[in-house]
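User: tokens in, sequence out, please.
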């Protein structure tokens, strides 16, 4: 499953159902990507044809397959009115990398309620970056130990994965421990222990 960042360009909407019968409604959009939610500004008084031209960025992780847009009408003193919604599959985006601003049908109660225009861009996360993110736990511990052994010569050490150790290896390429550094079954590099470690590029 692709991982990376999703950029959403919220352009405008047209032909929305006006939920304020006496005045132009004040629409805004709630964007949901799995558990992440963001909200657009309120297009005050723009009625059925609002414009936003706003960008939003979401993190794409395992299990993300769609983007949901929920259009609401902001009301003062009363509950906000539901205008309609759109669910956009991200399968094509993961393949193409980007989709130019495209109009999608807004639906409410199974009926067409206008259109909303959205552009999408997906930037895959580099494999090395994904490994960095996962290095803090035991999930990648086998790879972690292999890297430690190869880079620092800790062939017989049983090390507990810590972000600190991996960061040093990543940034400086090689980690050398002074001879006075005793390798224990589980090593935690605190601030004072880091001072006893020699780093060379």
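Assistant: Sequence out:
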């Amino acid at each position: 499953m692709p991982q990376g960042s999703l950029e959403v360009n919220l352009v405008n909407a047209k032909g929305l159902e006006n939920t304020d019968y006496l005045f132009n409604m004040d629409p805004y959009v709630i964007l949901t990507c799995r558990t992440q939610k963001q909200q657009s500004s309120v297009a005050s008084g723009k009625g059925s044809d609002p414009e936003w031209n706003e960008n939003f960025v979401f993190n794409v992780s395992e299990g993300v397959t769609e983007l949901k847009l929920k259009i609401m009408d902001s009301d003062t003193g009363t509950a906000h009115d539901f205008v309609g919604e759109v669910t956009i599959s991200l399968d094509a985006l993961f393949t193409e990398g980007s989709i130019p601003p495209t109009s999608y049908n807004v639906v409410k109660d199974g009926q067409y309620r206008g259109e909303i225009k959205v552009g999408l861009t997906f930037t895959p996360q580099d494999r090395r970056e994904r490994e960095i993110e996962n290095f803090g736990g035991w999930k990648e511990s086998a790879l972690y130990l292999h890297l430690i052994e190869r880079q620092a010569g800790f062939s017989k050490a049983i090390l507990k994965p810590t972000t600190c150790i991996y960061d040093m290896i990543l940034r400086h390429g090689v980690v050398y421990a002074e001879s006075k550094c005793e390798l224990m079954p589980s090593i935690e590099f605190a601030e004072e222990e880091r001072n006893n470690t020699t780093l060379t590029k």
